[in-house]
Design a protein that fits this description.
The complex is a heterodimer of chains A (322) and B (137). Chain A is of the alpha/beta class and 322 residues long. Chain A is built from 12 helices and 8 strands. Chain A folds into 3 domains: 1-42, no CATH class; 44-251, 3-Layer(aba) Sandwich (Rossmann fold), CATH 3.40.50.300; 264-320, no CATH class. Chain B has one domain: Cobalamin-binding domain (Rossmann fold), CATH 3.40.50. Chain B has a 5-stranded parallel β-sheet, sandwiched between helices. The chains are: A alpha/beta (322), B alpha/beta (137).
Amino acid sequence: MEPPELVSALLDGKHRALARAITKIENRSEGYRDIVAALHEHTGHADVIGITGSPGAGKSTLVDKLAAEYRDRGLTVGVIAVDPSSPFSGGAVLGDRIRMGSNVGDMDVFFRSMSARGTLGGLSTATSDAVKALDAFGKDKILIETVGAGQNEVDVVKTADTVAVLVPPSSGDDVQMLKAGILEIGDVFVVNKADLAGSDKTVQELRGMLEMRDRADGDWEPDIVETVANTGEGVDDLLSVFDAHADWLDDTGKRDDIERKRYAEEIRTLLRNDAGALVEAEIERRGGMDEFVDAVVARETDPYTIADDVLEPFRDAVRHND
Amino acid sequence: MSDSSERKIRCLVAKVGLDGHDRGAHVIARAFRDAGFEVIYSGLHQAPEDIVQAAVQEDVDVVGISILSGAHNTLVPKVIEGLEEYGAFEDTLLIVGGIIPDEDRPELEDAGVDAIFGPGTPMEETIQFIRKNVPER
């Protein structure tokens, strides 16, 4: 299907079209930009929830239970589960789907596995574009499950309205958590596997650390919820917190602020990438990077002069437009 | 560059029906990963409609079904029917692995299975087959 057809089939509720649109987005196939552009006006209706936390914390199992609970409430759900890819072969085994036992056979839970494709730990632009596709398709709730690799998880905030950070009980010393920097991104902290020993202590430690974090008046007060994803215990409580956070976003006008920031960031990223591509093309046109490097190594010129030189036509164009 | 296409071959490795042996499926999944494919593993004991759901949502290029139970003549056609229902059969490569008696092969191939790989097939042969026959999209 060509992009315009694909978009109308997607808006028409065709699962196959949604799946294919996400593939095109993921592959950066020809025409994907037109697809995402056409979808934009249909987005903005879904609640986007990010689920992050260390590997083995129980993210997939919890996502499965959350999706099932939303379905019980008559809501439709989209899930994007990001898994790491091998830096050597570029291949990946995307295993999160195995945990989706509560939702097999239910097409109204649209579950899609994505590999991180080199963007270590983080959510790539492709992920946020895929979220738009699910949003435009009409999903009420979109859950993003991250790789769980740690540091770069902070990226999830850029796409999700609400972020849940999973912490397994007795996950070790306080310093480790502060170092990960995840304390700042959580709107709710989920001590999963709360039936295991050490759960209470983890809750206490978390509470202590959250109290220490800098916050201004009127900021959201992060909640701590205990769950046992296996049995579904605590899932109800967690959904209540999600709802409360969504209401808070609306009541305080934060949702608009976040949205504006997100789009500003997205526009900047696109511009940087596109401008970078233009510059690459200009470098090629002038004989390629190797020639520049040769000249710099031979002390005939220097990197700053080359940068000025290559950018000259761009600068000219900007001046002409003044 | 931001616009260069980065197509990856996506495969669903599926265990369907009651047989509980997935050593082979695991080995295949890892070999596919090492070949640079993105592999979605279904887990054990999937019904045909679960396989269809996964294949459609994940938009895989290849569905590889591993069956050791002998129920292939009932299960595989059901997967094919489901794929057809979603318009996904045409451009999906369908391969079957496991224990398939010779006399059952023609029927499966007639039904739409693109290839059947029995025990002892070198991994490289399967990977090459997929690379060569992965549908244009």
